[in-house]
Amino acid sequence: MSRVRVYLPATTSVLRTLVDDGVLPGRHTGFAVTPQLRHFYELSDADADIEELEYAALLAAARASLRLVDADPTAARRRVVIAAAVPDGAVSPNDDADTDTDRGAARVEGDIRLQDVASAHIDGAAAEDDVRAAVNVVLEADLGSEDAQFLVDQAEGHELAWYATQEIGSALELL
User: Residue ranges of the domains in the chain?
Assistant: First the structure.
């Protein structure tokens, strides 16, 4: 069975649920190397390889994570992205997306099991102030506010730390 890498925007609360329960049930919105994402990068960079395209999907998921953190007052003010390998048939591209941040958006049918997770990507402590500021204005940035976009860009300037599946629990304990 063919599998595809998806990047799921999350929060520290969601990640804790995944570690504790071993599964995130239901349908998910994520990001992947969709035909639209591939086409966009082929137009702008004919040499883009799969790793670059997956990194673009990861960054889109990180932006979406800001919106989730905004809706979850109990979550740490850090972006979280879960990278998982799911059956190819479980992923449906949302190629109707018309904004830069929606390129690569996809629906993921079915549960995400901890055993399917390749890694988690989490902001470090140094990003918290910038993420907090971005969370407060991310919706305004989505609507075109240049001032809000500046704050979102500040948060997106932080690299997410990479954690292997077996390291996720320990990473959460440090938050």
Answer: 3-169
